[in-house]
TrEMBL record:
Residues 121-242 form the OmpA-like domain. Belongs to the MotB family. It is found in: Cell membrane. It is a single-pass membrane protein. Keywords: Cell membrane, Membrane, Transmembrane, Transmembrane helix. This is Chemotaxis protein MotB. It comes from Clostridium sartagoforme. The keyword Cell membrane applies. One of its GO terms (cellular component) is plasma membrane. Its main location: membrane. InterPro entries: Bact_OuterMem_StrucFunc, MotB-like_N_dom, OmpA-like, OmpA-like_sf.
């Protein structure tokens, strides 16, 4: 029988590279299994990535999968904030969670033009201009304002926090038989909002309080009609501060 000739080039035969390749693939697979076993899988973030990818493929806004909806926040960012945590795993405070919840509610119900969300040291306020709720120099709720209060009642009913209703005016004097000063006007407006939530919408009166501040807590100078309009407002404050709850 003829003897097979040895490979005179001294290198590997045509199929010998496969053994080296198989060893490399095995080592890589072992390495990735090890990494996976040491990591924690965030199901919500994975879901967010999938949603972002689907949204992008359907032609919705967003520059890329890594920056999808950077400004409107409808799809979570990869590596950004989730519902309850900041980037890096830091948990949101109760007030930050409340702010995000109210912001989403206002956006979903198209209330951006009538409700301004204000971060207060005591909690989160939904701020409404006086002309949305009342006629000039009146504390009686306008009929068309009640639909807005009905919508805001949904978010109030979804939490158990105390609610502070605060009335504010500009610095123009008022002196009528019903309202000798802005104190009475602002206080009566706040009380009427509370009464609507409690007597009409059935909220627990123990959660509510009403305060009138007159013209003494402005948010803008009373130099122009536009700034005066900002000062004439009612704040519906959802309390998150422990000090205010006691």
């Amino acid at each position: 029988m003829a003897r097979k000739k040895k490979n005179s080039g001294g290198g590997l035969r045509g199929d010998e590279w496969m053994a080296t390749y198989a060893d490399t693939v095995t080592l890589l697979l072992t390495f990735f299994v090890l990494l996976y076993s040491m990591s924690s899988v965030d199901a919500e973030k994975t879901k967010g990535i999938a949603n972002a990818f689907v949204s992008m493929m359907s032609g919705q806004s967003g520059d890329s999968l890594m920056q999808f909806n950077l400004y409107n926040g409808e799809v979570p960012l990869i590596g950004g904030e989730t519902e309850d945590r900041f980037e890096g795993g830091e948990e949101l405070t109760d007030q930050q969670k409340m702010f995000n919840t109210i912001k989403e509610f206002v956006h979903n119900n198209n209330l951006q033009d009538v409700v301004e969300i204000v971060d207060d040291e005591r909690g989160v306020a939904m701020q409404l201009r006086d002309n949305i709720l009342f006629e000039t120099s009146s504390s009686d709720l306008r009929e068309d304002s009640k639909a807005i209060l009905n919508q805001l009642n949904t978010i109030i009913a979804s939490v158990s926090n105390p609610i502070l209703i605060e009335g504010h005016t500009d610095n123009r004097d008022i002196n009528t038989s019903r309202f000798p000063s802005n104190w009475e006007l602002s206080a009566d407006r706040a009380v009427n909002v509370v009464r609507y939530f409690v007597e009409v919408l059935g909220q627990d009166p123990k959660r509510f309080s009403a305060t009138g501040y007159g013209e003494f807590q402005p948010v803008a100078p009373n130099n122009t009609y536009e700034d005066m309009a900002k000062n004439r407002r009612v704040d519906i404050l959802i309390v998150t501060s422990k000090g205010e709850e006691s």
